[in-house]
Amino acid sequence: MEPSANEIDWDSQPLGQVSDAKLAEELGVSIAVVVYNRRNRNIAAAFDRRQRFDIDWDAQPLGQVSDAELARSLGVSQTTVRNQRMKRKIPLFDKYAKYR
């Protein structure tokens, strides 16, 4: 059984030394959890261009959640998400659409 995010000693993890995605996979937690803990310690992300190519963009909820929210969960920039959404001609997420 994988440890919960609260049971992990984040100060002993290689935050910023390996990609958030790789560390998340090794620890059995989401990328968002790694990003949250790295940012809370003011540690810059490791530069890993391969991380962007490992994402199956067609399987992501583009336009179903905000670009910012999806970017945080994937550990990429909001611009990267926006570019992928626009490339597929998917409209921007509208959080008020369900009220219209």
How do the strands and helices of this protein lay out in sequence?
Blueprint lengths: L19 H8 L3 H10 L9 H4 L13 H8 L3 H10 L13
Strand content: under 5%
Average per-residue pLDDT, rounded, comes to 87
Overall spatial form: elongated
Low-confidence stretches: none
SSE topology string: HHHHH
**Total count of helical runs of at least 4 residues:** 5
Structural class: mainly alpha
What share of the residues lie within helices?
Answer: 40-55%
Give the distance, in angstroms, between the N- and C-terminal Cα atoms: 44 Å
Q: How many β-strands, per DSSP?
A: 0
Walk me through this protein's architecture:
40% of the residues lie in helices and 0% in strands. The protein is an all-alpha fold and 100 residues long. The chain folds into 2 domains: 8-48, no CATH class; 55-93. The longest helix has 10 residues, at 31-40. The chain is elongated, with a radius of gyration of 15 Å. The model has no long low-confidence stretch (mean pLDDT 87).
